[in-house]
């Protein structure tokens, strides 16, 4: 019997391996999902981002045919959750919902464990959320002019809560102090929920927070005072509340946007399936009604795409790097 020897080039071998890997990836994507998906939230339960995540989870799960489980991974100013997702297996079973903290983190942290522009696949934008400036119910000021006068005369006595180092509420508060020319005592919490609880309980004086959490409390009218909204235009759900811009803080504009991400290398077919579920969810009647009640705006179909989120995040990283440098905000 004659034995034949075949020589296979390294390039041919690598190509064959690549085809096998691609075939396995395509097979995995076609069968995906066959178990529950984890939607990671960087902040505590009950906070604004958590509210949005839980609203979307049910209709997304119905489209995907599997449960979407919300997991609150809290800490380090919202950087632990994206770090976890960036390092997760890129099979689509671990995804992230995060607000504009994805854009501010590179400028806030000297050593960030992930790169928002390189370590993720983009699924799509979700919604935009205005913010409001609140105080405890018995705070001495009754309008924004009185607030400005009081904090300038008593800044060493006034406390300003936020949802944690690097959170949007911290950035909003720092911008407020910068434009008022004051330096208040800032108190970071492990999420917006605990910060709001202490504000309503009278343990802290001021808080800048998203309408997803503040509108119900404002409309209740018994537990907080409201001094203005952070967007250039008034809110349809709070038409009598003036903007900070119209009350003298010219150019003050903070609107929180949210996006959804997956680990880098997640198959395109899987991203497409998640994106389809996201787009169905943001058109769901219950989701639209709840988001409208919270004075937030679901994004257009053009923004709820991987490319829409990529473009927006890239622009926002550049924008906030400049703002953070000018205001001196830092997380370290």
TrEMBL record:
InterPro entries: BUG, Bug_dom1. Keywords: Signal. SUPFAM superfamilies: Periplasmic binding protein-like II. The keyword Membrane does not apply. Residues 1-29 form the signal peptide. Belongs to the UPF0065 (bug) family. This is Tripartite tricarboxylate transporter substrate binding protein BugD. The lineage of its organism: Bacteria, Pseudomonadati, Pseudomonadota, Betaproteobacteria, Burkholderiales.
């Amino acid at each position: 019997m004659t034995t034949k020897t075949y020589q296979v080039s390294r390039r041919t071998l690598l190509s064959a391996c690549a085809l096998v890997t691609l075939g396995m990836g395509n097979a995995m994507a076609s069968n995906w999902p066959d178990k529950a998906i984890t939607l990671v939230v960087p902040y505590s339960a009950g906070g604004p981002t958590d509210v949005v995540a839980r609203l979307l989870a049910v209709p997304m799960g119905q489209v995907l045919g599997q449960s979407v489980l919300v997991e609150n991974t809290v800490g380090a100013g919202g950087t632990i959750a994206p770090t976890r997702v960036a390092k997760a297996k890129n099979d689509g079973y671990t995804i992230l919902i995060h607000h504009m903290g994805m854009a501010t983190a590179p400028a806030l942290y000297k050593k960030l464990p992930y790169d928002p522009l390189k370590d993720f696949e983009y699924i799509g934008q979700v919604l935009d959320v205005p913010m409001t400036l609140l105080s405890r119910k018995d705070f001495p000021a009754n309008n924004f002019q009185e607030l400005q006068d009081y904090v300038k005369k008593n800044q060493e006595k006034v406390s300003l809560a936020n949802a944690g180092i690097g959170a949007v509420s911290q950035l909003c508060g720092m911008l407020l102090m910068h434009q008022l020319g004051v330096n208040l005592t800032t108190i970071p919490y492990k999420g917006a929920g605990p910060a709001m609880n202490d504000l309503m309980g009278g343990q802290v004086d001021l808080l800048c927070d998203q309408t997803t959490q503040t509108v119900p409390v404002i409309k209740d009218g018994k537990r907080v005072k409201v001094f203005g909204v952070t967007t250039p235009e008034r809110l349809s759900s709070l038409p009598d509340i003036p903007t900070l811009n119209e009350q003298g803080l010219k150019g003050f504009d903070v609107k929180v946007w949210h996006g959804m991400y997956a680990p880098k290398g997640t198959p395109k077919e899987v991203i497409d399936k998640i994106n389809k579920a996201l787009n169905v969810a943001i058109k769901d009647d219950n989701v639209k009604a709840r988001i409208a009640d919270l004075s937030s705006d679901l994004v257009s179909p053009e923004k709820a795409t991987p490319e829409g989120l990529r473009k927006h995040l890239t622009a926002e990283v550049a924008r906030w790097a400049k703002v953070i440098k000018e205001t001196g905000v830092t997380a370290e």
